[in-house]
Write a structure and sequence with these properties.
The protein is of the alpha/beta class. The chain has two domains: 88 residues, no CATH class; 315 residues, Rossmann fold, CATH 3.40.50. The chain is built from 13 helices and eleven strands. It has a seven-stranded parallel β-sheet with strand order 7-6-5-8-9-10-11, sandwiched between helices. The radius of gyration is 20 Å and the shape is globular.
């Protein structure tokens, strides 16, 4: 049984990855793998204790089957808020070993699709990938703004390989159109970064044109549909990655398959609940996708926390809260700092090894990377495989895909989607 993982990296080391056994501690160690960036040290502690070597004591992933409950037990809820507060107070200290910006290798010929990349973390992620030579596909709603950004980047005198494609995550029909247009090219996708997300702080409950609560649609359903429909292109780019920008706020989320749209009346809607629940749903769905993707497909699924970042979410706050938000810059990361975990998850060679190790050990959750580019233990609730399977099944139903969609897509078969617009 795997007791723990310790991954270490040094800039000066160029030897390939190798696993060794530490007989004294029963810890499997990769002492000096090649890494991107500055000296980096990452650990995942004893899975049974569910502890990390940082300031956050994580919950024990003890439930293998679902337990009927209407919300988080108070102890899990308290642990979740402890994790959030610890990340807020100590995230700069925990990430002090990282360079800013995070150094990237040449990415010429590597295709990245990044959603929601005209502002905030997504903008910085896209800019740095473009500057590193990647073939960048900006999947955005505001295409005019994206073209303006490209012109600005080109003014810096660096040749870019960037294109813009329209997608509106508030519309599942738009997601299907995007995926069909890309797949029709028969070109590979090496990394899909599902960056786009919303957090409508203090706003009343709203619904998309598809009838879904906006947080669950943008933060989970649309990203899940896009990831699945791009499976053929991701297989062409194998080894490839699906990178989901998640949040530490998932620690206080609670989601049930029948209440995912927050219309059942069992739990009162708040924007905070909508956001946290959608992020937990994303981890649960991603974990089942991670487990069900066959090794020969060569697709790795990763979720990450960018930290607590100063982005456009502040525009939804009241004027008094906006003032306070900008008076605490030391604690809050800027977008350049916040995008480091996205870049790490999308480019670092260790991610593939880490993903394969967790799959081999039948870890119940997909790889989760913290804002400090270290492996992290997702919330206790995310380890509940029974509810994760139900979230998987319900998600397929809500996005209009058959239950065997993944298997068919991996096998190269056509899959019909309820939101596919048939050409007349």
């Amino acid at each position: 049984m795997l007791i723990g993982i310790q991954l270490t990296a040094r800039k000066s080391v160029s030897q390939p990855w190798r696993w060794t056994e530490d007989a004294s501690s029963s810890v499997r160690i990769a002492p000096e793998p090649t890494m991107i960036g500055s000296e980096l040290r990452t650990d995942l502690r004893d899975a049974e204790r569910g502890q990390r070597s940082d300031f956050t004591a994580m919950a024990t992933p003890s439930r293998a089957s679902g337990e009927s409950k209407r919300g988080l037990p108070w102890l899990e809820w308290a642990r979740g808020w402890y994790s959030i507060c610890a990340e807020f107070l100590f995230q700069r200290i925990m990430a002090s070993h990282l360079e800013n910006p995070l150094p990237l290798p040449p990415l010429n010929g590597v295709t990245f699709i990044v959603t929601g990349c005209t502002s905030g973390i997504g903008l910085e992620t896209a800019r740095q990938l473009a500057m590193a030579g990647a073939h960048l596909v900006m999947a955005v709603r505001n295409t005019n703004l994206a073209h303006e950004l490209i012109r600005k980047w080109q003014a810096e005198g660096i040749p870019l390989d960037v294109e813009v494609m329209e997608i509106d995550l508030m519309s599942l029909k738009s997601v299907v159109r995007f995926a069909k247009a890309w797949n029709a090219r028969l070109q590979p996708v090496h990394v899909l970064i599902n960056n786009a997300g919303i957090f409508s702080i203090g706003e009343p409950q709203r619904f998309s044109e598809d009838g879904y609560e906006t947080h669950i649609q943008v933060n989970h359903l649309a990203a899940a549909l896009l990831s699945l429909l791009l499976i053929p292109s991701l297989i062409r780019g194998s080894p490839s990655r699906i990178v989901n920008v998640n949040s530490v706020m998932h620690n206080v989320g609670f989601v049930e398959a029948d209440g995912m749209n927050l219309v059942s009346g069992k739990r009162k809607f708040t924007s905070l609940r909508g956001y946290c629940d959608s992020k937990l749903a994303q981890i649960k769905f991603s974990s089942i996708l991670f487990k069900r993707l066959p090794a020969e497909a060569g697709i790795h699924v990763v979720c990450l926390s960018p930290g607590i970042v100063r982005t456009n979410v502040a525009r939804d706050l009241s004027s008094s809260l906006r003032t306070g938000y900008h008076w605490i810059p030391y604690f809050i990361l800027d977008p350049e700092e916040g995008c480091r975990s996205s870049l790490f998850a999308g480019t670092d060679p260790q991610i593939v090894e880490y993903s394969e190790l967790l799959k081999m050990e039948e870890w119940p959750v997909c790889p989760y990377i913290s804002h400090d580019c270290r492996p992290a233990n997702a919330s206790d609730e995310s380890h509940n495989l029974e509810t994760s399977k139900k979230i998987w099944e319900k998600t397929l139903e809500l996005v209009g895909l058959p239950a065997d969609a993944l298997e068919k897509l991996v096998a190269g078969e056509e899959v019909s989607c309820q939101y596919d617009e048939i050409d007349e």
